[in-house]
Amino acid sequence: MPVFVLTLLLLLLPASAAAQVYKCKGKSGETAYSEHPCDANAQPMKLRDEPSGGTAAPAIASGAEALSEPSPHSDSSAARDDESARAAERTCIATATASVYGPSNDRVGNLQQQLSALNEQLAATADPQRSQALRARMGTLRQAITREHAAAHTQMNTARRRCIEQHRPAS
């Protein structure tokens, strides 16, 4: 398990400037790190301090268009309004992420537990008919997990677009 967590952290390092990372506790007490919130109350980890002399706008989790920085010639009031709008957009996306991925992760976790139980039953059975039935049920659970992931990603993309439309000024 520590190797998995270390590998996950190493994979996240190149994208750490543009992604949020959530620290999660599994049902059996293990620690895992995810780019998606574990539950509705999840807060992103603070990975490093923002550089002094400006604020960096994090990229949207999908890697889509980056937020633009105010030009040096813009009015300070407009710059504050722009920063406030970007902060509201980030908050909206974080809230949507927690409300979409939290319940989805719970459902996927439940399906994975069922899959694990079926896998244990498969290892213990010698009956070919029983093995075939267990494999079929396991295939159905894998498809359900795939559908759950796809539905959550679709919901999140819709929510992300809604947040952008609500909080970005029209160009």
Apparent shape: elongated
Order of helices and strands: HEEHH
Poorly predicted sequence stretches spanning 5 or more consecutive residues:
50-71
How many helical elements?
3
Strand order, main sheet: write it out: 1-2
For the secondary structure, the number of strands is: 2
Measured as a percent range, the helix fraction is 55-70%
Short description:
With 171 residues, this protein is mainly alpha-helical. It has helices at 2-12, 76-124, 128-167, and strands spanning 22-25, 31-34.
Write structural notes for this entry.
The protein starts with a helix and ends with a helix. Helix 2 runs antiparallel to helix 3. It has a two-stranded antiparallel ribbon with strand order 1-2. With 171 residues, the protein is mostly helical. It has 3 helices and 2 strands. 11% of the residues are buried.
What is the strand and helix layout of this fold?
Layout: H1 2-12, E1 22-25, E2 31-34, H2 76-124, H3 128-167
Antiparallel strand pairs: 1-2
Helix pairs in contact: 2-3
Keywords, separated by commas or semicolons:
single chain; 171 residues; mainly alpha; two-stranded antiparallel ribbon; 58% helix; elongated
